[in-house]
Amino acid sequence: xxxxxxxxxxxxxxxxxxxxxxxxxxxxxxxxxxxxxxxxxxxxxxxxxxxxxxxxxxxxxxxxxxxxxxxxxxxxxxxxxxxxxxxxxxxxxxxxxxxxxxxxxxxxxxxxxxxxxxxxxxxxxxxxxxxxxxxxxxxxxxxxxxxxxxxxxxxxxxxxxxxxxxxxxxxxxxxxxxxxxxxxxxxxxxxxxxxxxxxxxxxxxxxxxxxxxxxxxxxxxxxxxxxxxxxxxxxxxxxxxxxxxxxxxxxxxxxxxxxxxxxxxxxxxxxxxxxxxxxxxxxxxxxxxxxxxxxxxxxxxxxxxxxxxxxxxxxxxxxxxxxxxxxxxxxxxxx
Length: 335
Ligand code: TXA
Ligand code: MG
What we know:
By secondary structure, the protein is of the alpha/beta class. The protein is built from eleven helices and 15 strands. Helix 1 crosses helix 6. The protein is globular, with a radius of gyration of 20 Å. The structure holds threonylcarbamoyladenylate and magnesium ion. The site of magnesium ion (MG) has 3 residues, from loops.
């Protein structure tokens, strides 16, 4: 299969390009497109055969459910049996945007989308290209991140091609994704709301909108049925081993490079005695939003530069860094 790449304006995507791409989706094809978080790999969510092709292209295990992307709240409600007050409040406050709500699904949603489960994850993305595409397609769009399973998510069109060139029908290249890490996944089916995956919407923002405590339920699970399989320990991982230092990482970087290894280092500040030699040092932004926006692109770049190991300076402990720490912890898991 030849993957056709269409470059579009990220703010005002050309209607002809959107219409053509929407037609590919409606006919059961696979289309990668930018969102405000990462690039997604979309298929018509109501077409089980099309959704199965997503799993095949990614090499994704069938037990990992997909997020369904819709144009607005009305379209979201058509997919669920219950639309609680909590969902209405969160949708009004955070949609379009990087918050995925997990709710009881209706039968119209095929089993392959929910991995056989009784719930479905739904969000309205805010990226103009994603929204225009979903509107033009006129169907809900199931879309995981547009990478091979377990690899780093793509935040630029070239990252998508690295993993999926020749395996998907089309790629809409709308430039870099502004957010850089995936949406917050919030389970609204239990007594209290539970964050299954931290993301760009913080627990504090959700709790204050609902005037309720929010559980953070992101412990990695091993074996057994998984409520949110994205929590599997190794996920979002670069092809080279990554370790998370418990300090700035500089001593570890020096020790490893003295053994002759070519090391990539995601640092937060410049050590005064710096002498980098063969070390690929990257100075990351010190505010969490800019760090998140840069993270996957820097990991892809280090991978492409051929480093043998990546050492990451420990980011701060506060809540603003929760999503970044979560992704780094998973990327660092040894197997
Ligand atoms: O920002 C994002 O969410 C991106 C863009 C493309 O929208 N998508 C994304 O999809 O990250 P994916 O498939 O890479 O991750 C989806 C996450 C997984 O952790 C999955 O287990 C969880 O959402 N998920 C999806 N449906 C679920 C459900 N019904 N119950 C619990 N977790 C669910
Ligand atoms: Mg993913």
